[in-house]
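Human: Can I borrow your eye for a moment on a structure tokenisation matter? Separate attempts, laid side by side, tell us more than any discussion would. Could you pick a protein and write out its sequence and tokenised fold? No explanation is needed for now; the record alone will do.

Assistant:
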Amino acid sequence: MPLDFTAIDFETANSSPASACAVGLVRVRAGRVVAKAGWLIRPPAGHDEFNPFNTRIHGIRVEDVAGAAEWTHQLDALCAFAGADVLVAHNAGFDMNVLRRACAATGDDCPPYRYLCTLQLARKSYVLDSYRLPVAAAEAGFADFAHHNATADAEACAHIVIDTARRHGVTDVSHLAELAGIKVGRLEPSAPVSAGPTFAPMALEAAVA
């Protein structure tokens, strides 16, 4: 099978995983980047407070998303881009939780995507002092990108998969995960999310991934 997948990265407005404010998507076919997309998202009501901590990380402010479509109106576009691909993300648990919890907050059906974590993949494939996305991506030959720009981060994830697949001598995501000793997960729906305080900073691992 060819090395086909979609890399994804979310940025959030605050500590709530439902507070998606930007997404980046990169499609890979036969081990080559063939399409990129990214857009701003107006976070779901009750999860739309912009924490200064998060804004310092990604630079997105409440006024930047004022004219953006809400999650419900953008989910179809996200799914149309990704199709039936395996999703890959750095610290994928964070990004999959954003997808899951944003759907729960808006009452949308959560798409049952399979996913692979490039943080785990890098730890199994590289010997580095740090496995943060910029360091792992540089090892994969993709350096000097705009970290915390969602599309740039998604492209960095894509290059980690492309490079590690080359190093392992495989041509599909499932075989790559098997050789690296990691699992391809599956996204499961979440219970509905109630609005709550959104002032605490994100967990550090999610913020610096």
Observations:
- Confidence is low (pLDDT under 50) at residues 193-209.
